[in-house]
Amino acid sequence: MMAPEAIRDHEYRSRCINHCVEYIRELLGLLDEMTPGHPMEAGIVAAISETQKTLGRFGVRLEF
């Protein structure tokens, strides 16, 4: 059986990963709706990149 601290750490890690993946899905949805060259495009791509770095800290790698 896992110690309470380990359970909390695992739950925290899972929530963070799920939140990041959902955020990337939302951002990809926005990109899909934009016309190429939209002024916000670069910012959204940067946000996706930073979120991927956060996932990397948890040992998760997403490829598109």
Features:
single chain, 64 residues, mainly alpha, 2 helices, 73% helix
Shape: elongated
Task: Name the beta content range.
Answer: under 5%
Radius of gyration: 15 Å
User: Can you summarize the main beta sheet?
Assistant: none
Regions with pLDDT < 50 over 5+ consecutive residues? none
Query: How helical, in percent, are the residues?
Result: over 70%
By DSSP, the count of extended strands is 0
The succession of helices and strands, N to C, reads: HH
N- to C-terminal distance? 36 Å
Number of helices: 2
Mean pLDDT: 90
SS-based class? mainly alpha
Written description of the protein model:
The protein contains 2 helices and no strands. It is elongated, with a radius of gyration of 15 Å. The longest helix has 30 residues. Helix 1 packs antiparallel against helix 2. The chain is mainly alpha-helical and 64 residues long. The protein is 73% helix and 0% strand.
